[in-house]
Design a protein that fits this description.
The protein has 2 domains: 139 residues, Rossmann fold; 67 residues, DNA polymerase, domain 1, CATH 1.10.150. It is 49% helix and 11% strand. The radius of gyration is 17 Å and the shape is globular. The protein starts with 5 loop residues before the first strand and ends with a helix.
Length: 216
Amino acid sequence: MPDFKAVIFDFGGVFTTSPVQNFAVFERENNLPERFIGDVIKTNINENAWAKFERAEIDLDTFDGAFAEETRAAGFEIRGKTLVGLLSLTFNHNMIDALTRVKQRGLKTGCITNNLPKVGSNEMLAQNENRDILELIHKNFDAMIESAKAGVRKPEPRIYEMMCEMLSVDPEHCIFLDDLGVNLKPAREMGMTTIKVPFDDVSPAVTELDRLLQSN
C-alpha cells in the first residue's frame, strides 16, 4: 500500500452533483440518444468547443455557436448557452465531510477542476444552495487549479503534474477522485491511486477513500 501524502479532488460531480446528471434529464426530455451530449464533448476531446471554452480560449458567444455546430453535425443542435444553463448543481455533503477528515489526518489536499470562464462554482450552484459552504470547501484545499485560469484541463497530463508540483508530492503518494473515467486514466498512468465517484451516489467513493487512508 502506498504511503499517501495527498488527496486530490475534482469539484463538480464530487463535492456537488454531476452536470452529467442534468445532461441526462435534458436528453430524455428532448428524445435524444442516451449520453448524446457526453459523446459530443468526448469527440476530439482536447480541441473541441467545450475543451477550448474550459481553457478560456474562446468566450461564451463563440462557444454558443461552436457547440451548436458540433451538436448539429451529430444529429441534434444544442446551443452552447443552453448547455451552460444546465449547470445547476447541489452539494454532496458526504464528500464535504470526507474532505474535512482528510485535513484532520494531516494530509495535503488539492482540487483540479475543469471550469468555465466567468462561470465559477458559485454560478453553477442551484439557487437554493448555501454559497457559504463553497468558502468552507475552498479553505480546506492547499492548492487548486481551475482550467479556465490555468489554460490547461483534464485529461491533459500537464494539469496533474502541476498539482503535484504545487503540493510538492510525487504522484504515487496521491489519491485522486473524479466522476469521469477519462479524467482518472492519466492520473492512474502517472502512478496515482484513483477513485471513480459514481454520478448518483458518492458514498462508495467516500467509503473507498476512508478505507485507503485507514490502512495508510
